[in-house]
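Entry 14. Two folds queued back to back today. First construct below, sequence then structure tokens.
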Amino acid sequence: MSRIVLGLALASPIFVLGTLTSAATAADSSLTTISATEFQVPTPGAQPLTTLPTTSELIAQNRRTAAPMPSVAELESGPVIAPAASQPQERSLGIQRNLPQVTSVNQLSDVRPTDWAYQALASLVEKYGCIAGYPDGTFRGNRAATRYELAAALNACLDVISDRFATKEDLATLQKLMQEFANELALVKGRVTNLEGRVANLEATQFATITKLSATVIFNVSDVLTNDRAVAPGLINPGLTVDDNPVVNQRTRINFDTSFYGKDRLRLRLQSANIVSYAGLTGTNMGRLGYDGTSANAFTLQKGFYSFPVATRGFMVLDFVGGEFNDNVFTFNPLLQSGDTGALSRFGRFNPIYRAGNAAAAAGVTFKYDVVQNKERGTGVTLNVGYLAPTSGNPFRNARNPGGFNNAVGNTNGFFNGAYAALAQVDVRPVKNVALGLTYVRSFGLDPFGGTGSTGNFSAANPTRIGFANSTADTLGFQFTYRPIQKFNIAGWVGYSSVNGVQNNFDYPTRANSAEVLNWAVTLASPDLWNKGDVLGFIFGQPPQTISLSNTFVANLPAPLPAAPVSRTAFNSFHLEGFYRFAVMPNISITPGIIAIINPNSNSNNDPIVVGAVRTTFSF
């Protein structure tokens, strides 16, 4: 019986506690056993037991000790305290204290892996470190043990456990903290419960699992603050005035963004607008707002594209309606480029050469590749190439004037036998906060500057010409942006285009025009001046205007058309703009500002045109 009790005691410190309730069996019949319900575990604190006496020593000790065993009532009232006479007897039994703790069960010479309690003893020695042996390096596991010896062993194991785990004092401290922060814990629990309910409601009522809905609404209040209307270059205003009134109009965009694997995006944008362009009212494109356009308040599919990464450094955008280069490549005017929250004017957002190819039906592809990239330093080199075709959806190859592009019969320019624009750009970021860009655009049948320059650039020299319908343009642009401090950014650009008329209009001979068109600008922006999200912006530059024009006679035409080449130079239109964007709330901003055009249409006979606007933008 003693072997069984001792083996179970060695199984674990927790099982030792249960073993004490059964008591060790003595070798003499005069020893009394106590049931499990009668025994109380003594308070830990005794020194660890390191030696075990023999059975004969236990018998001799019991006979020499006349002290009676404690009663059940005494046991229940508190811990058992050994009598004073037991102290010298303990020494006489050869119990050695403060022996070196063994670290491995293999240090006990009489313990074998085949012993039935080997694993339990190994756990107590190696895992808990609360069992030692006799001085001679033995354990003597077959000998009986007294209650005192078991209590000492149990106390040693409990001391180890209390050092590794929370003590009663720790638990009491934790309980006290829970009581002190009961209100805060209840508040947190309530918030978590509320969040769980909201999440469950969102999951039950969400629009779609892979599609995100966002929208932007612009409320615009604007007016032309001057009276005279601009006329074409070389003409004198015969008294035309601007007959207008302040307007309040809107543009609403609803975006559906779908991602199939996290890094791609399919966007469909619906737009409703009634912001009429000021070009017709003022007689020039130079005073247009950067967010004008109208669909008579009807919702239409304004944009659709799919973008996705290619390998680790490439990125591709497939436009199938409403393609724009300025949406697909970096335009080097980060604080002012947005039509929702950036510059108020169309010209002030970015270099107009990015607008070549922009049209409601434009489709195409743009590819970007990071040749060199160092995200930690903010440096790198990126190559961009793109192609847009506004008439890609028209199947009539020989149709006259399909959609306002490519008037000539049988024209076979571009991949889709019509108007197009092809772009190549290199972005260079030599140091942090500095970016430089060099851009080349080849276009046919399109305004190379997207309706931002003079109206009727060629009208004075050639009244029969209709815009850029049959012209090719080779355009170069240089852009930069520099942010020396957090609250100041300077950006700018210059764009030069060589435009050549390559075909006649409406199937009868006329002259071919060759023109040089130039534009440039410098922009200053200071973000977060008053509140976070505010922007103060200034723009000064020259909108696109013809600086040189030559007309070449290509067929025998009746008088009064001249046969000799004609050339002229103009360089006198300037754009001034100032605005301040107030970030009223994270999703609401108000941007009042003034746009002034000096010598509109490159005609010094025109008086300045001033447009005032207040744009309120809601985004959600």
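Second construct, same run, same settings:
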Amino acid sequence: MTSPSAPVDLPAAWPQGVPRDIEIPDEPLTATLDRVMRDHPDRVAVDFLGQATTYRQLGAQVDRGTRVLHDLGVRAGDRVALVMPNCTSHIVAFWSVLRLGAVVVEHNPTYTSDELAHQLADSGATVAIVWEQAVPRVLEAQDRTELRHVVAVDLSADLPRTARWALKLPVAKARTTRAAMRGPVPAGVPHWHRLVAAAEPLRPSEAPVASDTALLQYTGGTTGTPKAAVLSHRNLVANALQGQTWTQHEPGTEVVYGVLPFFHAFGLTLCLTYAVRIAATLVVLPSFDPARVLAAQRRRPGTFIPAVPPMLDRLAAAAEETGADLTSFRYSISGAMALPRATAERWERVTGGIVSEGYGMTETSPVALGNPLSRDRRPGSLGLPFPSTRIRVVDQEDPTRDVPPGEQGELLISGPQVFQGYWQRPDETAHQLLEGGWLRTGDVVRVDDDGMVVLVDRMKEMIVTGGFKVYPSQVEDHLRGMPGVLDVAVVGEPAGDMGEHVVAAVVLHEDGSGAGIDLAAVREWCETRLARYALPRRLVVLKDLPRSQVGKVLRRVVREQVTDKSSREG
């Protein structure tokens, strides 16, 4: 066992019944699944669009998935890429990789071939389990990677039998649904479901240990350079246990809604590890759609939903419009972006439950702070450090110097959920992880008298839109190659519950080559290299870009110009 640190005085706002420190078991993450399979074998583990899978059945599928990966040559320490939306197969593959002591590498299945090629090559993944629609993009990238095997996942194969049969009907609705779930797969690419169905179960004789790497999760960190955060089994075990301690949920009693993408750190921990730790039934949806969530709610009412604010707002609005009953949801945790007070009030009015804001980073597995899951929560506050988590507020220029109480400074975090470093990037790791294991967050905060942490500003330039991080330099680098564009600066502008919208401020060539450039053309150019959420939502043409004396673009001034131009045009 990892011993907790010495006891300290509890902050005034500390939730009743939650210990300040906890012991983290010295065990791999797979031990969590083993316990739940033993103690709750007949409880429904996963409900994917009506197809129920018990923990006993899930364990059997994981054992067969483990055999499939072993037969493909996967061994301890090897990286296995998962490129698919939320589905039962995603969950099975995740646990099967960990059973072998191998390393899960999560990827956004909507990424372009170039984006996937970069991440796959960087991780050195040798096997990729891929949604059919993403298979062509992964195969296009394969010669730039170390991939030896690509295995296709048919999303519709996880559906109930009647739903699979309905997809074959010669009607428009069936064709539309089938097209959204499936995709063309070249001959010779094996299918995950067929391999698993034919495999003999395998339970490796040697389990991974707590210090082994479990997950590579790609993030821009605080610099905008895509890199993989290395998370150990201990990191993931700790954060799931911290979450259970904070929520005080009893095992075998909760129905968690998996509307967050599993390839995102927030969704992975809350839906794949925390949900299993509390033996919850996880209602899985391949993508967020309010109508589909309400349909699932009628079938299997939820009790707990982790989400980003726009999801909560859209779901509450849909319930108000249709008269749907969301009162079974007692709790919600909101993260990835600031929770607007109006959204919190609307959600609590519709559900009668509590929504609490949390804070974290991929580098903290990801949750580090949270509001109490009670009426004591404070909308607009990041909350309190999780159990066994310590924070410091330091001078922004000198992270070795703590600022006086109540003053603002950069937030540092220490705890068992703090990552091991960046994959094959020792210099960036050394910059981010200070002596004593303190993680620099790049966020400026203050701590109020009751211990609540409040976000003041962001040191980083990233844009948060709909819960996703967009790094301006990546968008700018691509737009600079567009014919007719002389220079560009990308900034975020307030967008209500979406957080921010991406705005491209461009300077056009004086030779007139950029005369035909408009927002549609910019978005079309960007679609070849960037994720959809990173595409500019507005285009502003400037005569030049404001720069510092050393030539650095002053994004703060650009943002002011963009805002001013918008107000005048509006």
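Quick look at the second one. The CA atoms of residues 222 and 460 lie 6 Å apart. DSSP finds 17 helices and 26 strands in the chain.
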